[in-house]
Amino acid sequence: MIEFDNVSKTYQNKWPALVNVSFKVEKGEFVFITGPTGAGKTTILKLIYAEELPTTGKVIVNNKNISLIKKKELPFYRRNIGIIFQDFKLLYDRTVYENLEFVLKAIDIKGDEIREKIIRTLTRLGLAHKKDCYPYQLSGGEQQKVAIARALVKDPEIILADEPTGNIDEEASKEIINIFKEINLMGTTVIMATHHSELPQLLKKRRLHIISGRIAYD
Ligand SMILES: Nc1ncnc2c1ncn2[C@@H]1O[C@H](COP(=O)(O)OP(=O)(O)OP(=O)(O)O)[C@@H](O)[C@H]1O
Ligand SMILES: [Mg+2]
């Protein structure tokens, strides 16, 4: 369902962030992307989300070459992808509830279903009591959970999680990892970039290890 075919990515024609990267991820897989800072983990996720395009090579998602997606088709393409950005990218002038509502309205979900989906997702993450708070009224870990809730609320086929446990304590991390495990068991493909190199082994999951933009092992 996701295929990188000899992908290289060079930002602003300078330093190559990815070099000849090829791999495939099947529907329903749970894959960790590990590697040191600057290795290219976030770049891989941005390519899948079509936020960046490869400099050479092909990124194919659900049989679509992302380089051929027209700008106006991007929202439709992204409907099925939930992404948790490393820096959250929450809407800071909207409440937690409104941040999630924004996502659902953008994909034409209406009325009671909006409320039901939001409350269900916030409850699952233990955030229901914060629904009327603005992001700046939340701790870093709570903001991270909002970012996760926002990715999950639309029940996507693919979840891209960039360091989703970067700002939370060990207990909360376990809780978050368990939620991703559950979602994966329901059939969602999960791709998670992390510095926590022990996680793949702990969860007995596939690991793509990236060093300086190349796959060191798969
Ligand atoms: N928008 C950008 N413009 C220019 N260079 C960039 C950009 N984004 C990333 N890079 C460069 O590409 C390389 C890979 O970055 P990337 O963010 O993918 O690494 P990462 O593995 O996610 O790192 P980290 O663990 O710190 O999050 C780095 O050298 C980085 O400086
Ligand atoms: Mg990163």
TrEMBL record:
Coiled coil: none
Gene Ontology biological process terms from the UniProt entry: cell division
Principal subcellular localisation of the protein: membrane
Pfam families on file: ABC_tran
Keywords: ATP-binding, Cell cycle, Cell division, Cell membrane, Membrane, Nucleotide-binding
ABC transporter domain residues: 2-215
Lipid bilayer topology: Peripheral membrane protein
Molecular function via GO: ATP binding; ATP hydrolysis activity; transmembrane transporter activity
GO CC entries: plasma membrane
Compartment(s): Cell membrane
Task performed by this protein: Part of the ABC transporter FtsEX involved in cellular division.
Similarity comment: family membership: Belongs to the ABC transporter superfamily.
Matching NCBIfam families: FtsE
Complexes and interactors: Homodimer. Forms a membrane-associated complex with FtsX.
Name of the molecule in the record: Cell division ATP-binding protein FtsE
Organism: candidate division WOR-3 bacterium
